[in-house]
Amino acid sequence: MMKFWRENVYAAGALLLLRLYIGWMWLEAGWHKMTGGFDAAGFLTRAVENPVADKATGAAVYPTYTAFIEHFALPNVKLINFLIPVGEFLIGLGLILGALTTAAAFFGLMLNFLFLFAGTVSTNPWMVLLGALIFIGGANAGAFGLDRWLMPILRAGWKKIFRRKDTLGGGTTDAAPKAV
């Protein structure tokens, strides 16, 4: 099944439809936040005051995340107010265009999990499920998108950057030694 999802042209078509749907959701959410005066301070304050708690004990389920919000996110709420809308918009743009698709799906998943850890369910589980399918699709998820042309260029640049000079012979070698 994984081979089909990562290599088959029909799976690439299904991934295109998923990308467009999830990408539009991210793009629209980011755009509304960028143009609508988004302020995360209230959301973050409520997440600290009312963390996700175990029903039996009342103990916070994600105490380290609550501490992160309290000690980093809230004091830097201006940074968060920039990162969330721009991040959502760029995730959506990447998914719609099929550009850096796997990275966009990864960051979409991470953002959804951050929202879930703060106690917001909403559409996040649905977006996690569909985002995971796109992420698992890997390169095939961007086959009908800009990744078709972008990824070979990035791979060539990556190889060029990590090619190093052989210290003894002065020639160029790959970073990993080759078996003889």
From TrEMBL:
Membrane topology category: Multi-pass membrane protein
Protein origin, superkingdom: Bacteria
Keywords associated with the record: Membrane, Transmembrane, Transmembrane helix
UniProt xrefs under InterPro entries: DoxX
Protein species of origin: Thermobacillus xylanilyticus
Transmembrane intervals: 9-27, 89-114, 126-146
Keyword Ion transport: no
Subcellular location, record wording: Membrane
A Pfam match: DoxX
Entries under PANTHER family matching the protein: DOXX FAMILY PROTEIN (PTHR39157:SF1), INTEGRAL MEMBRANE PROTEIN-RELATED (PTHR39157)
Name under which the protein is recorded: DoxX family protein
Source species taxonomy: Bacteria, Bacillati, Bacillota, Bacilli, Bacillales
